Amino acid sequence: MDVSFMPILHTSSLRRLAGQHSLSGDAELGNPASIKSHGEHHMTEDRSALVRDLVTPLASGKGWIKFLGIITIVGAALSVLSTFGLGLLVAWLPIWMGVLLWQSGGALERAQMSGDEASMRMALGKLRTYFVIQGILIVISFALVLMVFVLGIGSAIFSGMHHAL
């Protein structure tokens, strides 16, 4: 069992996890078959409940995630239209980011409703991709601002030296 998620589990989830590994009824320590048959059904239910519990904080914001996805897509589409299609050279990235947010919101909804681990992984993977792209764009933006700043100072110095001669 991966305990890296333990700090964010609710008490009810911890009780379910603890109960998942306990022996009950006629299950004996020496009889693994009785443990497996007795615990398989409960283990699946416990995993689904755990997924629903873990995804709840993000799923409660799924409407906002989808809204931001739509706004990002619409903004990029307007950019493409306002530049007569030339904006597509740049706007594909925000469109992709908007689609990632929309897909993540849908996967969060499915994970919360069904307790499906694959949907939770998909939602988190889409969010990860979105944030990686966003982070790279911010680093590029900072680099461009720094470059313009340095070039501005350089041209001011060069211009001042040119007038001094």
Topology:
Blueprint: H1 11-20, H2 32-59, H3 62-82, H4 88-114, H5 117-164
Structure description:
The protein is mainly α. α2 packs across α4 (88-114) and α4 (88-114) packs antiparallel against α5 (117-164). The chain is built from five helices and no strands. The model is unreliable at 1-36 (pLDDT under 50). It starts with 10 loop residues before the first helix and ends with a helix. It has a domain at 1-59. The chain has helices spanning 11-20, 32-59, 62-82, 88-114, 117-164.
Beta percentage is under 5%
Order of helices and strands: HHHHH
Largest sheet: none
Mean pLDDT, all residues: 80
Q: Report Rg.
A: 26 Å
Number of helix segments?
5
Strand segment count: 0
In which range does the helix fraction lie?
over 70%
Give the low-pLDDT segments: 1-36
* Class derived from helix and strand content: mainly alpha
Measured distance between first and last alpha carbons: 74 Å
Overall spatial form: elongated
